[in-house]
């Protein structure tokens, strides 16, 4: 048989495969050492926006459902931001003279979308999907902090890989049943209903409301509830930490 490759071609192939894996790793690794500095994670720092939009006002005091503005959060990877039309369903009638709403009126007149400053972000080499988390009943505040209290939106968690893995290693700790009559997806929004109704919160509910990821109780009773919800929601944790889940 004619020899197509020199005997050591295989070694070259192997070396280039390894380099192909190692170089991006080093770029990621040294790049991320810089982004890990606390002043750079952006957690808890309100971001200036073209319009000072308040979640406390709209989502809590007025009681507008998250899904009214973040329409694709249950069904797609991205939650989506509201268009000017959505704001104008109310603001073409109320607060029409507010100077704070001047950029909104301008956007409406010119048809140019408002350029909201992004608060939460994972790097491009990370795959994230909202719909699967919402459909497993994980509340927004677990990842975004106490949104319902924010007058200017800020980041609630670092979104470092180790943070994602804290849950992916064993999501049972973060599973909860707010209202047994509702689907897991609907339960995500029960927290805000409870808060609006002024109902007393359990210890677990309080920590979620406050976005205290690290303080979520991990006692035995909750562990048992979590395990049984893992079963009914058919969550298989054995593959959740595999690299390809988030890096595809
Ligand atoms: C009336 C519309 C409206 C409602 C209701 C609303 N939001 Fe928002 N949300 C916005 C707008 C506008 C922005 C972009 C400006 C900003 O970041 O404050 C935003 C931004 C966000 C962000 C940050 C996005 C980014 O840039 O990373 C999160 C997280 C969020 N909303 C969660 C929620 C949750 C949770 C609820 C329900 C409790 C909710 N929102 C209800 C309009 C709304
Ligand atoms: C369901 C109705 C409704 C929708 C939708 C809505 N708002 Fe409002 N918004 C209100 C009401 C009511 C107030 C005034 C509340 C008050 O101060 O008593 C208000 C107040 C505001 C204010 C404060 C104005 C001032 O001068 O103090 C801003 C800014 C604002 N809204 C921005 C937005 C933006 C941006 C959107 C779209 C993302 C939006 N709103 C969507 C009802 C709405
Ligand atoms: C498991 C954690 C997690 C949960 C639960 C979660 N988010 Fe997010 N959210 C993220 C991450 C991570 C990003 C950044 C995504 C990116 O950069 O691609 C994000 C981004 C966003 C954004 C910015 C726009 C976008 O789609 O990228 C909005 C708005 C938002 N989330 C709203 C919500 C709302 C509303 C809920 C609850 C109904 C929710 N999120 C639940 C982790 C979460
Ligand atoms: C509080 C718990 C929790 C946190 C925090 C969390 N996840 Fe998840 N994630 C889950 C659960 C539960 C599932 C669903 C597993 C299943 O149903 O088998 C999941 C599934 C996924 C999937 C699989 C989607 C699919 O289509 O198969 C991806 C991708 C993912 N998560 C990315 C992330 C990333 C990236 C982060 C951090 C920014 C993150 N997750 C943070 C609990 C969490
Ligand atoms: C649950 C989701 C998830 C899984 C599973 C996951 N990663 Fe990541 N990974 C992330 C996120 C999110 C980042 C971005 C971190 C940041 O921005 O600081 C990241 C970043 C990285 C980086 C850049 C350096 C760093 O630490 O920030 C490398 C390298 C990496 N991941 C390798 C891996 C390998 C190898 C595996 C399998 C053993 C893996 N990842 C599994 C979510 C995940």
Distance between the termini: 39 Å
Q: Uncertain segments of ≥5 residues (pLDDT<50)? A: 1-5, 11-20, 22-27
Could you state the oligomeric state of the chains shown?
Answer: single chain
What portion of residues belong to β-strands?
Answer: under 5%
Q: Which small molecules are bound? A: heme C
Structural class: mainly alpha
Helix content: 40-55%
Secondary-structure element series: HHHHHHHHHHHHHH
Number of strands: 0
Supply Rg: 23 Å
Give the mean pLDDT.
88
Tally of helical runs? 14
Instruction: Give the biggest beta sheet.
Output: none
Query: How would you describe the shape?
Result: globular
Structurally, the number of domains stands at 3
Give the secondary structure arrangement, pairings included.
Layout: H1 9-35, H2 38-41, H3 55-61, H4 66-69, H5 84-91, H6 102-110, H7 130-135, H8 140-144, H9 161-168, H10 184-187, H11 190-197, H12 203-209, H13 220-232, H14 243-246
Helix pairs in contact: 5-6
The structure holds heme C (HEC) (5 copies).
One heme C binds at residues 122, 126-129, 132-133, 136, 138, 142-143, 159, 164, 167-168, 171, 174, 235-236, 240, 245-246.
Could you please describe the fold and organization of this structure?
This protein is 46% helix and 0% strand. It has 248 residues and is an all-alpha fold. The chain has 3 domains: 9-41; 55-81 and 119-246, no CATH class; 83-115, no CATH class. It is globular and about 55 Å long. Residues 1-5, 11-20 and 22-27 have low confidence and may be disordered. The chain binds heme C (5 copies). Residues 25, 28-29, 32, 35, 122-123, 126, 159-161, 164-165, 168, 241, 243, 245-247 line the site of one heme C. One heme C binds next to helix 3 and helix 5.
